[in-house]
Amino acid sequence: MTSAAAEGVAKTSATPSAPRGRKSVTGTRRTVAALFLLPALVLLGALVVYPIGYSIVRSFYDSSGDHFAGIDNYRALFTDDGIRTALKNNIIWVVFAPAVATALGLIFAVLTERVRWGTAFKLVVFMPMAISMLAAGIIFRLVYDQDPDKGVANAVWVGVHDTFAQSSAFPKAHPGRNSPLKPDHGGFLTTSPVHTGRSAALPLVGVAPEQMPDSAKKAVQAAAEPGKITGTTWQDFTRGKGVGKLGAVDPSELGYSGMRIEAVKDGKVVATAKAADDGTFTLPAKADGALLRLPAGNFKEPYNGVDWLGPSLVTPAIIGAYVWMWAGFAMVLIAAGLAGVPRELLEAARVDGANEWQVFRRVTVPLLAPVLAVVAVTLMINVLKIFDLVFIIAPGSSQDDANVLALELYRKGFSEGRPGVASAIAVFLLVLVIPVMLFNMRRLRREVRR
Q1: Residue 231 and residue 220: Cα distance in Å, rounded?
Q2: CA–CA dist 368, 371 (Å, integer)
Q3: Is 78 in contact with 405 (CB distance < 8 Å)?
Q4: What mean pLDDT is reported for the chain?
Q5: Residue 425, exposed/middle/buried by CB under 10 A (0-12, 13-18, 19+)?
Q6: Domain 80-154+308-417 classification at class level
Q7: How does pLDDT run across 236-290, given as a tens digit for each residue?
């Protein structure tokens, strides 16, 4: 029996092993696996590998593609003003956009865990992700419109501003022909002093009747009073050719309700008055011999808000639109990571006397560090190729100031007819993205090993 067993072992050991390399780890033959992968590899080569290779080759040729240009196209990356502005803006994007979006996503994810309607809030915040960049650009082009009647941002801004500082109702008012007023530092000053017991006339024109204040009433010629200076300031204009008399109050003309009048002696204001609804006003006797001034505050232009899409604010404004879209993406990923955080650690920190801020800063954030890194790196790669929002939101007058590398690539390749420089920008963008991708891959491998 022992010899039979030994013989069986010998036969087993003598049996040749199956050829290696014919099957994959999953048991599928390598040839079959290669056939299934072939269509994907062909597409990958046609849509990724070939364009990259062609762009690298094309970047060394001139605009016509017939003559070798060496590194001239790459030299333009650091000498062309448009490309340098685009590079500067890309740095701003990479530094601020991912950081702000990730921070907001973290705050939203942590706070929504403590409210009943957290799911609904997450849905609302994540909803912009369903909107294309083109649609979001159109939306925010309207949001940032300079006209407060169209742009939501300026409508809110103007509403807040006007709550504390009302603008004048007479921004276009000015003296007419043969007026007793002359310009004075944004306002108007009488050409001769006034005296007690007399009535002063301060006629102005330039305000349409429908733009007069609702409180304005028909102007009245102020009666002279002993020991006082009286007067009238009004809209000295009556519609209709040959109707009305200049410098005199006509029945259909309206008083400048609320107009401020100052009595000035030797450069100092000695008395002030405010016009009634019918335009009349009264000054005390100490204003005798003074010049009457309508200060510049009476003619202050209406506040039209902030020029969001102007040269100085256009890049932060577009970054705000990007954050509106991608904060929901960051929130969802961070919330998923937060769901895996052991609650015992948080409770242990609270039992040890830590307040909520300390728990958040010293426990929650460190435990979420891998997830935060994933979100930040993903957004960094995304903003390096940002194009749609900048192209749609920035108006033509500010597009040079909001320029980014992807937009400059488009402009150089299609608007300016310089495909060599455009290819160099594309290669440069690839070089910028590769380190970020390698960092992400190394971090993912470390996570798998753990």
Answers
A1: 9
A2: 5
A3: no
A4: 86
A5: buried
A6: mainly alpha
A7: 887 665 556 777 888 888 899 889 999 999 889 999 999 999 999 999 999 999 9
